[in-house]
Amino acid sequence: MLKDIVAKPGMTKTETYEQWAKTLFVKEPANMKLLVVVDKLLTGFDAPHCTYLYMATVALVRAYANMADELEEAGYSGEEIARIKQQLDQALKLRELIRQASGETLDLKPFEADMRHLIDTYIEADDPRRISPFENLGLLDLIVKSGIAEAIATRLGCMQGNKNAIAETIENNVRSTIIKEHLTDPAFYANISAQLQEIIAQRKAKAIAYEEYLQKIAELTKQVAAGQAKDNPAALDTPGKRALFNNLKSIAASPLGALPAADDQGAYAPAAVALDLALKIDAVVKRVRPDGWRGVQARETPREVLERESHDLWGRRYLLSLVEEEAAPTVTNHPGSLVLRVRPGTSQAQREVVMAGWYRRQVRDAAAELIETWECILGVRVHRLFVQRMKTRWGSCSPETRTIRLNTELAKKPVQCLEYILVHELMHLLERHHNARFVELMDRSLPRWRQSRELLNGLPLTHEEWHY
């Protein structure tokens, strides 16, 4: 850059160039093509204390980008275009050199610990304070949790004691819930709707005192929030059973009801008969429901470990190739196929044992790698890992012995499902229960764990009943 500079008397080439650049910048800024400011550029120990080089690199790059595709049309030769590109590259490299030399590019990692210390030392924030234990509850839930008087004072205090306005607000909330939920249990919500209309009619006719009205509407609200009557039999422990019972009971109570008698004497007991029939229907439906039924995961067809039978590995499907030879049984993974080598005459049960052992080793090897990674991330330590067939769970954790158990079937699912289950179990070393803290830890450590759980729950199962 300084080779064509002629030093003025008593000045070096650098000082001469510096004076020229500063003068040009002050007197003719419009003629400046590049601008860079550098203090003590890496020119050696004899560099001047303040060396300024002014370069408008950004303007140059933009100008070139605007006309790069039109240089030939503008009359530039191929040689001239190449020379311009070379000059542009030199300018960019010089800018990067100056940026690195001047410390303009800053790596914040070395300062993270110091920043945390400054924040902890000089910035203070009070712990969040809960104003009300019911701030996230709806009006009906609040009535159930705290009582109707507290709910009115908390949520409807702005109505300043306007009894009609308060009553209509509660009634509208109850009616809205009935409309939203009635298809899940038509008979129950039809009965609730009739009760609501009766209470409203009594209030409007002033047939009951306001305090009695509040008592009745509060009791009705509790039933709506629970989705069942307060005197329901304990055996009705699922929404499906309750819906069957309520509808059968309404049929039995109708003039055309044709349910059988409940005892040997022929005495007619609609509730008892409806309960017995509802439980039987529920059991039959669960027994014969097909794969894909709402709430039921599809299940794999039984595998017989035969030639060209499909088998899954880490979420991908492979065709099984069965090879008989006088050697120890092995399973090897090839593109699109799994090769099972067994001795001639090996039974199906023995082939299944070989495949199960191979799947178990797949899970163990993959889990060992993941554990090594996640132990560092979570700051925990696993003492023992077991991989086995599990009929009802994907995995389990024993915090006391720091033992993790994983289901062999995880080898058939995508690796992210194995990671989700493993992190879930490792998290129990930090939080034993599935509470809010557990969910917060999962969100912080594995933000996409819900997607992985949804993926896992949507894949075909091997066993009939699974819970996770």
In short:
The chain has 468 residues and is an alpha/beta fold.
What percent of residues are in strands? 5-15%
User: Strand-and-helix sequence, N→C?
Assistant: HHHHHHHHHHHEEEEHEEEHHH
Helix content: 40-55%
Overall shape: it is flat
What's the CATH topology name of the largest domain?
A: Zincin-like
The CATH architecture of the largest domain comes to: 2-Layer Sandwich
Query: What does the average pLDDT come to?
Result: 79
**CA-based gyration radius:** 38 Å
* N-to-C span: 70 Å
Question: What labels would you give this structure?
Answer:
disordered C terminus, four-stranded mixed sheet, alpha/beta, 4 domains, 468 residues, flat, three-stranded mixed sheet
Give an overview in words:
The protein is α/β, with parallel strands linked by helices and 468 residues long. It folds into four domains: 33-102, no CATH class; 139-226, no CATH class; 239-288, no CATH class; 310-458, Zincin-like, CATH 3.30.2010. Helices cover 49% and strands 8% of the residues. It has helices at residues 13-27, 57-67, 78-102, 112-122, 139-146, 148-155, 163-181, 186-204, 210-226, 239-253, 270-288, 348-378, 415-427, 436-445, 449-458, and strands at 310-313, 316-324, 330-334, 337-342, 384-388, 395-398, 403-407. The chain is flat and about 115 Å long. It starts with 12 loop residues before the first helix and ends in a 10-residue tail after the last helix.
